[in-house]
Amino acid sequence: MASSAIAPTSAHFINNKELSLSALSPSSPSISVQRCKRTAKMSKKISSVMSPQQFERKPATTGSVKTGMTMTEKILARASEKSQLRPGENVWVNVDVLMTHDVCGPGSFAIFKKEFGHDAKVWDRKKIVIIPDHYIFTSDELANRNVDILRDFSIEQNIKYFYDIKDLSNFKANTDYKGVCHIALAQEGHCRPGEVLLGTDSHTCTAGAFGQFATGIGITDAGFVLGAGKLLLKVPPTLRFVMDGEMPDYVLAKDLILQIIGEISVSGATYKAMEFLGTTVESLSMEERMTLCNMVIEAGGKNGVVPADSTTFKYLEDKTSVPYEPVYSDAQARYLSEYRFDISKLEPLVAKPHSPDNRALARECKDVKIDRVYIGSCTGGKTEDFFAAAKVFLASGKKVKVPTFLVPATQKVWMDVYTLLVPGSGGKTCSQIFEEAGCDTPASPTCGACMGGPRDTYARLNEPQAS
Length: 467
Description:
This protein has 467 residues and is of the alpha/beta class. It contains 14 helices and 21 strands. Among the domains are: 97-230, Aconitase, domain 3 (2-Layer Sandwich), CATH 3.30.499; 238-301 and 336-364, 3-Layer(aba) Sandwich (Aconitase, Domain 2); 369-451, 2-Layer Sandwich (Aconitase, domain 3), CATH 3.30.499.10. Helix 3 packs across helix 6 and helix 12 (383-396) packs across helix 14. The two termini are 40 Å apart. It holds the Pfam family Aconitase.
């Protein structure tokens, strides 16, 4: 998709003053940021960030004038069967996909049965995706019972997409089991442009990488969606993040989102849509775009979204046969604020305790003692994340000095770690490089230590450590 179709050059903003390029604080990377800030009084002119000023269009005398909409507004308008939506409106939204897992599924099912009846049927058995992934490889009986409840409900309701696991001793014996829900959703073709995807997990916003509205909900909302297929949502205003420039060596999408969160804080996008575009975003793979959208919740965001393009369509070619229709922000769409970044000046970043917005340059933290390393989760357990880690180990040529745990997100990622050759490695796979570096053997695919879970969860912290 041409950049002009994704990033129109005449987008207007609710805020009508611009800040000139400003340097960040001394502790921040040397990177230019431009932001449109809120003003107390609206001018009669609407400034354009990327084109000369234009005079405000006068209302038509024959009827209302359609206002341009952002991607998020367009998706929700389509899903609510409205021709026009504005931020702050409450609308009933038809849901395309509902996802739940072993932590929140049992509670969601209980609420569904309480409110719709013990013998009620779900609104659409083909639009519900149930993925056990959090507390899986454990001897904890209650955790295992949660998976049993998922299985019983899926059989009762004839759920089409239930990724079951029965043999906990050998995950490869479970052909249906996938692993971390957010990565599995993408790999199994449940993420499609223009759709609405809701999930009982805060990081459901990961799927916004596919140009869809994706956000996390609670078990009460999920119970209602199971029966009704729709949910009352408030339309969020949109923040626009334009990132341009070539990515420097060792800089990844995780650095991009940490830079943004450090800039706006962990509450800077509270109940707002975060729209990502620019030449840097266009150059990202789908996995990297997923990382970018994955962490909008760490900024308080309602959802993150990336315009679908040829990269998106190619990824989906062999993953879904369901027809979809992407949408793009209008040229005259209204944004709450815009932030601009020159990514060519960015350096690898670290989020120091205790908050994701406690941003620092990685090189500034070189003397911090680390007790253990964990590579995994929905944010960092994808194939490209392990390739990036292998690249660091190769460049170092040294063995690890602390326990280093590896938890691939899904069965597919686990296979990639053992089979795909790392470029520039002389024909080695990630697993070979990790073994030579002294890392732990790649574990069974789950959320692993990310959520904590039972005390026997692999790599779980059971005492205070710097990880």
